[in-house]
Amino acid sequence: MKKYPDGTYEVCHIGIQKVHTKDIIGLGLRPRDIANDNKMKRLRQSVATKGWKDESPIDLHLYLIPEGKYTVCSGGNHRPYLADKLHIPSIEAAVDVVIPKGKITEDTAKAIEALRRNYQILEHEANTFNHYLKTQRFQRSGNNHDHEKKLDEMYNQLTQINIQIKLLLKTEAYHLGYIPKDWFFRTHEKVNKRERKKE
């Protein structure tokens, strides 16, 4: 990630995806520091007895950079290293795609900026209102249903704004060729299902 200094890119969470082991080119720790440590020994033993079964791929957090390669963001250095040594072709990981700000269209950048401004305003209002309600709960030893409902609606609006930002970034990542079609449409299907459940 040295090629992408802080503040020059957006990061968009894609979710758990299957990635090619050979495309993971950057670890967060030096290979010689993890090759034979205790964690690696336990992982090797587990693979030897159970085969390659990663029950918690969310702990392996990868950045997908514009070059189509992956680097470890936080946690999970041992699994990519061992998978490469054992010639395991693909593994699952939690993937975030890195999008240089200079590649994002002007319209999308403006839309994201406006959404983030709205988010900050609404978040401040929601937190202020929540603080007020905490005081009321303490003084009256009870909850005002209408006020609690209003607070829930405010936090739901914040969630919706975040979803809109993520969808805008994922759309940019797809159009730039950073993520494949099935990753993009799978994400939209999940969002649509959540929306239908709310209805």
Please tell me about this protein's structure.
- There is one protein chain.
- By secondary structure, this protein is an alpha/beta fold.
- 55% of the residues lie in helices and 17% in strands.
- It has 6 helices and 5 strands, in the order ββααββαβααα.
- Strands 1-5-3-4-2 form a 5-stranded mixed beta sheet.
- Strand 3 and strand 4 (70-72) form a beta hairpin.
- Helix 4 runs antiparallel to helix 5 (145-175) and helix 5 runs antiparallel to helix 6.
Write the layout of secondary structure elements.
Layout: E1 9-20, E2 24-26, H1 31-34, H2 38-50, E3 61-64, E4 70-72, H3 78-85, E5 90-100, H4 106-140, H5 145-175, H6 181-198
Parallel strand pairs: 2-4, 3-5
Antiparallel strand pairs: 1-5, 3-4
Helix pairs in contact: 4-5, 5-6
Q: For the report, how would you describe the main beta sheet?
A: 5 strands, mixed
The rounded distance between the terminal residues' Cα atoms is 41 Å
Whole-angstrom Rg: 21 Å
Global shape: globular
Could you give the order of the helices and strands?
Answer: EEHHEEHEHHH
Strand order of the largest sheet: 1-5-3-4-2
- The number of strands is 5
Percentage of residues in DSSP E strands = 15-25%
Count of runs of 4 or more consecutive helical residues:
6
What structural class should be given to the helix and strand makeup?
alpha/beta
What proportion of the residues is helical, as a percent range? 40-55%
Mean pLDDT: 87
Task: List the defining traits of the structure above.
globular; 5 strands; 199 residues; alpha/beta; 6 helices
